[in-house]
Design brief:
Elements: E1 7-10, H1 28-41, E2 45-48, E3 50-51, E4 58-59, H2 62-65, H3 69-75, E5 79-82, H4 92-102, E6 106-110, E7 114-115, H5 133-138, E8 144-145, H6 149-163, E9 166-171, H7 174-185, E10 194-199, H8 209-223, E11 228-233, H9 238-247, E12 251-254, E13 261-263, E14 266-267, H10 271-284, H11 292-299
Parallel strand pairs: 1-2, 1-12, 2-5, 5-6, 6-9, 9-10, 10-11, 11-12
Antiparallel strand pairs: 3-4, 7-8, 13-14
Helix pairs in contact: 1-3, 1-10, 4-6, 7-8, 9-10
Length: 309
C-alpha cells in the first residue's frame, strides 16, 4: 500500500449514445470542461474520444480533437491519452488520425479483436434523440471490433516508434495478455507496461473478482512483478472492481465511457463526480492518489512538452 494509485478518467467514449444520459459530454467544449474538472478532482490520466458536436456520434476527425486537446493541456497537468479504438466501423487509418496529428504522451491499444455487445443497451432506451443511435447499437449483433496482429503491430510502429507514445494496453480477456507477450518477446515494444483490464463488457471477460485476480496473476507470470495495471469495471461493476483492484496493488479507471451511473439507478452528473467518489474510497482506505508527474515517471512517458498540441 506504499505506492500511490493512478486514476484514469475516460470522459466520453464511443459506445454510449446521447439518449442514454443527458450528462454525456458531446461538444468539444463539454469534453474539455469535463476533462479539466476530472483532473482537478484527482485524475492524472484523461482518456479521450471525440464526438460529432451536432449529433454526438463518434468521430475520429483530428480537427474535432484539436478543439479540446489544447484547452486540456493549458488548464491541467494531466496526461492526455487518445483512444486508438475510435468507434465501430472506423478504418485503422481513421482510428490513428488524431493520435498521429497530436503525438500525445499516451494512447490506448486494444490487444485483440472482440465482439462488443452494443445491442444489449438498445432495448433500455425508450426515446432516441438521434436517428443514428439505434442502428449503431444494434450493429453490435453482427460486427466485430477488429484489431488483428497486423493492426496491433502497425499501431505500435506508427505511434510507439513513430511518435514516442506509450500505451494503455486494453485487455478484454486472458488471450489478450498472451497477444501482448508475443509482441514483447519480439521486442516490438519495451516495458514498462501499463495494462488496463476491462471486465464486464459483453463479448469479453465477466466482471468478477476471480477473473480480475486471474488476469493479474497471469500478467505477472508473463511480464514480471513490476507491471503497472489498472481496471475498468463496466457499468455497475465500476466502483466495486476499482476498489478491489486497488486493494490488490493496482490502479483504477472511472468515467462516463465506462459507466453512466454514480450509484444504483442514479446517473452520474459528471466525470468529476466519479473521480471524487473513487478518490474518497481510496483515501479512506489509506491510499494516496498519484499526481500526473508521478504517473509520467512510473509509465516512462515523454512529457507534456513533447506533444503536438
Amino acid at each position: 500500500m506504499s505506492k500511490s494509485v493512478i486514476i484514469t478518467c475516460a470522459v466520453t467514449g464511443s459506445l454510449h449514445t446521447p439518449s442514454m444520459s443527458p450528462y454525456l459530454p458531446i461538444t468539444p467544449s463539454q469534453i474539455a470542461e469535463e476533462s479539466v474538472a476530472a483532473a482537478e478532482a484527482g485524475a492524472s490520466i484523461i482518456h479521450l474520444h471525440a464526438r460529432d458536436p451536432e449529433d454526438g456520434r463518434p468521430t475520429a476527425d483530428p480537427a474535432v480533437f484539436a478543439q479540446f486537446l489544447p484547452r486540456i493541456k493549458q488548464q491541467t497537468a494531466a496526461v492526455v491519452n487518445i483512444s486508438t479504438g475510435g468507434g465501430p466501423g472506423m478504418s485503422l487509418d481513421d482510428r490513428l488520425a488524431a493520435a498521429e496529428a497530436a503525438s500525445p504522451e499516451m494512447t490506448s491499444l486494444n490487444m485483440g479483436s472482440i465482439n462488443n455487445g452494443l445491442f444489449a443497451g438498445a432495448g433500455r432506451i425508450k426515446d432516441y434523440k438521434h436517428d443514428w443511435e439505434k442502428p449503431f447499437l444494434e450493429s453490435g449483433r453482427n460486427t466485430v471490433f477488429k484489431n488483428t496482429f497486423e493492426d496491433i503491430e502497425a499501431i505500435m510502429n506508427r505511434l510507439g516508434k513513430g511518435h514516442g507514445c506509450r500505451f494503455e494496453f486494453e485487455c478484454y480477456d486472458i488471450g489478450h495478455l498472451y497477444n501482448l507477450a508475443y509482441f514483447i518477446d519480439r521486442k516490438i515494444y519495451e516495458p514498462p507496461l501499463f495494462l488496463q483490464f476491462i471486465l464486464g463488457v459483453l463479448g469479453g471477460v465477466g466482471a468478477e473478482a476471480d477473473h480480475l485476480l486471474h488476469m493479474i496473476r497471469t500478467a505477472q507470470r508473463l511480464f514480471g512483478q513490476d507491471i503497472e495495471w489498472s481496471v475498468l469495471g463496466a457499468g455497475r461493476a465500476q466502483m466495486p472492481l476499482c476498489t478491489h483492484n486497488a486493494l490488490l496493488g493496482g490502479n483504477v479507471r472511472v468515467g462516463l465511457e465506462d459507466s453512466l451511473n454514480i450509484g444504483p439507478r442514479q446517473l452520474a452528473t459528471s466525470n468529476a463526480q466519479q473521480v471524487m467518489k473513487i478518490r474518497r474510497i481510496l483515501e479512506e482506505l489509506s491510499f494516496t492518489v498519484a499526481t500526473p508527474d508521478e504517473a509520467r515517471s512510473r509509465l516512462a512517458l515523454k512529457g507534456g512538452s513533447n506533444v503536438s498540441f
